[in-house]
Task: inverse folding
DNA sequence: GCTTGACTTCGAGTGCACTCGAAGGGGAAG
DNA sequence: CTTCCCCTTCGAGTGCACTCGAAGTCAAGC
């Protein structure tokens, strides 16, 4: 009745490698995962949710350093909630800015595509 | 009556370092820039426009490898216009996907912020 | 004439986030 | 019993895009 996923299974589920999962733990991005009788990691749904959240932070450009800071706050308990919120709001601002930049640059790309389209017309 | 900007000036204008500008040229991202009598680079408005375009491609996540491919096409002349357009449209698709990903992940971040906000309320 | 900034080649260093492999060992499933 | 996955520590390697520094030269501006 051992419950929870092994490293390999958890890795497959969240789209990271087993190597990387252990590395995340070692780097303090993930709190020590519970072990089964044989000392093997067992990831429960809480661990998985945490990993999913981390991957979202990663793909939105948060550095490992900042993720570690966040993980440390979370481990320190509920009295760090306000600071965690601030951290997230700063990150949110960066993401919004990034989106705005992308949309602005996309405009230039669209203009280029239009120009090329016209040149293709004229070449015929 | 030498016209055009020096490396340092051009670098300042486009937000890259002089080192990087020379490196871009060496890597084939930029066609050889015209020189003045003393052999120094002189960037004209065409060069600057090109550099600005490159920085947009960079900030939208295009790799140096792809920028080089694009630069080579541009150097090869007008008969590569269709291919350049395809390259841009593929890039555009990637950028749109990236924006969508960011917006999706931003939702999760917003949810987190809301949760933290409520926890802060309850702590009082 | 000195300072400043330009030129060249070249290789090495940086920062990030993995990513891999070695070496040696343990337990569970077919 | 063999295979497979897990465990550990450790250091080295990878890929990207710069980034820096050395070493030596040259020319324009003050």
Result:
């Amino acid at each position: 009745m051992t419950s929870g996923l092994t490293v390999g299974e958890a890795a497959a589920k969240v789209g990271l490698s087993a190597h990387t999962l252990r590395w995340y733990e070692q780097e303090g991005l993930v709190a020590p995962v519970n072990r089964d009788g044989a000392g093997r990691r067992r990831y429960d749904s809480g661990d998985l949710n945490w990993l999913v959240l981390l991957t979202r932070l990663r793909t939105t450009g948060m550095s490992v350093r900042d993720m570690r800071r966040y993980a440390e706050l979370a481990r320190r308990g509920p009295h760090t909630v306000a600071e965690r919120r601030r951290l997230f709001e700063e990150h949110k601002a960066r993401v919004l800015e990034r989106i705005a930049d992308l949309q602005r640059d996309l405009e230039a790309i669209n203009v280029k595509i239009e120009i090329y389209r016209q040149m293709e017309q004229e070449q015929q």
